[in-house]
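Now for our specimen.

. . .
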Amino acid sequence: MVRVRFAPSPTGLPHVGNIRTALFDWLFARHHGGKFILRIEDTDRERYQPEAVDAIMEGLRWLGLDWDEGPDIGGPYGPYVQSERLKIYHEYARKLVEAGYAYYCDCPPERLEKVRQERLAKGLPPMYDRHCRDRGLKSDPTDPNTVVRFKMPLFGKTCIYDELRGEICFDNSTFDDIVLIKSDGFPTYHFAVVVDDHLMGITHIMRAEEWIPSAGKHLLIYR
């Protein structure tokens, strides 16, 4: 069965781009007799606006875009608000560390900024230097003194298939060891979206083209 999700971040009032994505998702689900899921991605706590959640749902209702699963009506794969799913993200982060696909990092912001500036001065991308990648630090996703980073492959290519653009390939050496769990215990977008889409059985993802560069990273986490 087709399962699509509209997953806005409540950082302000919904705009035309949000509604356009929601409309495409809703039409696709209804055309294929599938499910349209509403998920609130509120992991950006600095910009989070509680009133935006109600505004998003009111806007969808006004347009007649009803959802089959969501924060207000529940469903078999809830909760449908990411801030209520922290234990799930922590569990999967631990599994990735234990399996050797992720690691704990205790680099302070000052060191990260120094590395960033040094790389920029050399004309290199401002990526993390993987200082903690092979240190084998012992910690936990809930520890405020560390973050969890994903071990990106250092060689090869990762290819995705997009219904509009066809096959798109990325050189793995251009990927940073992205943070999965931040020091505040909240997941980054890259991690939460992959975990949730997997557990909620999402079959098709429709979003802005700006997310294409991130698709390769998401596929690697999926694998």
User: Anything to note?
Assistant: The helical segments are 16-31, 50-63, 86-98, 109-121, 189-199, 212-222. The first helix runs from residue 16 to 31. The chain has a mean pLDDT of 95.
